[in-house]
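Listing S7. Sequence submitted for prediction.
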Amino acid sequence: MGLTIAEKILKNHLVDGEMIKGTEIGIKIDQTLTQDATGTMAYLEFEAMGVDRVKTERSVAYIDHNTLQSGFENADDHRFIGSIAKKHGIYFSRPGNGICHQVHLERFGIPGKTLIGSDSHTPTGGGIGMFACGAGGLDVAVAMGGGTYYITCPEIVNVKLTGKLSSWVSAKDVILEVLRILTVKGGVGKVIEYTGEGIASLSVPERATITNMGAELGATTSIFPSDEVTLEFLKAQGREADWVEIKADSDAVYDSVVEIDLSTLKPAAACPHSPDNIKPIAELAGQKVDQVCIGSCTNSSYMDLMKVATILKGKTCHPDVSLAIAPGSKQVFQMLAENGALADLIASGARILECACGPCIGMGQSPNSKGVSLRTFNRNFEGRSGTADGQIYLVSPETAAVSAITGVFTDPTTYLGEMPEFKLPEQFLIQDNMIEPPATPEQADKVEILRGPNIKPFPVTTPLADSIEAQAVLKVGDNITTDHIMPAGAKILPYRSNIPYLSQFCFAVCDTTFPERALKAEKSIIVGGSNYGQGSSREHAALVPLYLGVKVVLVKSFARIHRSNLINAGILPLTFEHEADYDLIEQGDYLELPNLKDCIVGDKPVVLFDKTKGIEIPVNANLSGRAKDILLAGGLLNYTKQNS
């Protein structure tokens, strides 16, 4: 029986376990990346491990999230990350060099390699044939130290693409169709692997748009073959030597198949407030638009912005529309400046933002009250834009640009004529002057680590207790995101290295009284619905509840990365054996898990007692042997120290 692309890479990197689907496997990690919103904590964790120098083939620290410097906090964190990188063998992408995933695709990604990053959109690297996963910062720190990365051996879904995209229909419309079919829960525990004759017509940046938003499916990762298209891209980046061919065997077996004829797709939008709430633009046509934002790690490539510049050339954005555009990297920005496309963007009235995540992470450009904002981003969770009642739609660059001109939702296939041919340049502009190499091992001892006063210690973790008795301090519903648990935005992100300060915002979207009640209770349990913890990989969504005394999170089902982050933080993740039992517990109930440690260690059934209601509820732990050991040690950091 032949192997899929993902199976080939996993088999080549397997260091622990067997390739049996549903079981835990450990893989060797070739590359890591961090960004500044998660990086400070990840490097504090790396320091605590006591490893002098990273043991990966390539680790890169990017500054792209917290670039708004309205106080000392972000600038201090940038300085700290830069000094850590120089001392410990990490390449440092300076502020202004671009968004981590765009730059990594351009300058560092290598087909067939494994990559984990402390950002959920790390699967962007799958567009170049990498097995690339989002992970918590502590997992990344362990990998930098030479440790193994553990995942559940995934099912493989074959998304078979046929045909070719019509004029002004884009890769964004492809992934929106996948989300419509599979939903935000459809990829959990799975790898999405793209095959079929239709992939030959998609460039690497287009493929990366599709794999980027595989994160919204909840997938472990998404991946395309490494083929002649990949070679063409790497050659244009001056990295032809990095290319290897990787494709699925002709007799590869997939767990399921989804077929999409690219020629049938039409421009679409993900409507508020979920990436899988998909409608055709034709259905929305004519509705007023207040803001358009073009950029993010999903749609800020050279090809994306050349199409936008072509649409906007000689036009002026509608007087009722605020148009903002952020190039994904310095390479893209400079190439647009040199070929005149940037002048076309500026002339249209667009507000040109720096090469960073910006509005996508709520870092500026929040829309007006109840404002309708069309964004080429990957997430439209409620409140993520910085405006609580903002109406955020996710669309393609083509749809965004046309709608910015008309002031209403507009289908580019009806507004524009035949699309001119857009080709990748034969040679990208290569100037890596904003990527700082690390000090040599001989020089490293002389490098001083620069710490600002906003950097606070890692929260204290405790080993799994013999029994737990605590109040259900919070009960929430389905599809709770990490933005619900630990919001982002310009007012909060600068404090990512200050867990005590962050704690006052925990679950603010759901219940502003939660932090105070949790601290008062000293220890507590959170009850939730299905797909709990979807979205960003931010481990702060586990570390802040840890600081507030949360001992257990009991839900219908978890998103992959967040469940791992809870275990890494020493918080026990449990699921209802019967989802209907979720309805039996009310917020405020006093719950007990007697003989818990004995049940976990001995693989015995775990029963929760609702002492308020006087009922028993069976729950599942489903922990691997390693996960048990991590919880018994009081988190991954303690476990790593004990086993190093």
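Caption to Listing S7: primary sequence and predicted structure tokens for the chain studied. The chain has a mean pLDDT of 96. The first strand starts at residue 14 and ends at 16.
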